[in-house]
Design a protein that fits this description.
By secondary structure, the protein is α/β, with parallel strands linked by helices. The chain contains 6 helices and 8 strands, in the order βαβββαβααβαβαβ. The protein has a 4-stranded parallel sheet with strand order 6-5-7-8. Strands 1-4 form a two-stranded antiparallel sheet. Helix 5 crosses helix 6. It starts with a strand and ends in an 8-residue tail after the last strand.
Length: 210
């Protein structure tokens, strides 16, 4: 069919990509630094891309072109939205198991390790927990309120029996989380080792408090 459609003068294109961003239908793509109309059936002929182009490389023309396929554009937008909201975030977990009660006292991954001891709620409260706390650390988790017994003895054995480089303790602001901080600090003291350590407290609305 003969209809109005955009035309891109590639000799004028400076590769800024503004037109591709302005095209709500996804008809324009940047290929090797040049804007190209890759899906004629996605171009509605309304020209949202024209005012975005700083070099005047885009204009209208009337020519033979496939009809605008609104249903296909809608389906493509839906798929793009799904993919952008359901991408897999890379896990930073580098060992298993993670529960303090289940982890062995000695393991190869403890050698020269930066150790993270965290209350299990912290990973749910703080959105960037993997990237900011777990990355490049051996992770141990527990809940002093729900788990039976005290972690102090087990953590003391882990710190005393392995070459631990540093210790980071992450807890929630709630009082019951004081148990995991108490156990970790006591374990470090009882191990007789002097290694760098710090405590990070997370608020119930997901903020770092200290």
């Amino acid at each position: 069919m003969i209809r109005k459609i955009i035309k891109i003068d590639e000799s004028k294109c400076n590769g800024c990509g503004a037109c591709a961003s302005a095209c709500h239908e996804g008809a324009i793509e940047m290929i090797n630094g040049v804007a190209k109309l890759t899906r004629e059936d996605y171009c509605d002929g309304l020209g949202d891309c024209l005012p975005a182009c700083p070099t005047g490389a885009i204009s209208f023309e009337e020519r033979e072109a496939p009809a605008y396929d609104e249903a296909a554009v809608h389906a493509a937008k839906k798929q793009s939205t799904y993919q952008s909201t359901n991408y897999a975030v890379e896990s930073q977990l580098i060992q298993w198991p993670v529960q303090i009660k289940l982890v062995p006292v000695r393991a190869p991954y403890f050698d020269n390790a930066n150790l993270l001891i965290a209350a299990d709620c912290t990973a749910y409260a703080y959105g960037n927990f993997h990237s900011e706390f777990m990355k490049n650390r051996i992770t141990l988790i527990g809940c002093p309120k729900l788990d039976e017994g005290d972690y102090t003895e087990k953590l003391t054995q882990i710190i005393a029996s392995n070459n631990i480089k540093s210790l980071t303790i992450v807890r929630m602001e709630v009082p019951c989380c004081g148990g995991i901080e108490f156990a970790a600090v006591n374990a470090l003291r009882m191990s007789g080792k002097f290694i760098p350590w710090n405590v990070v407290t997370i608020s119930t609305d997901g903020r770092i408090l200290n």
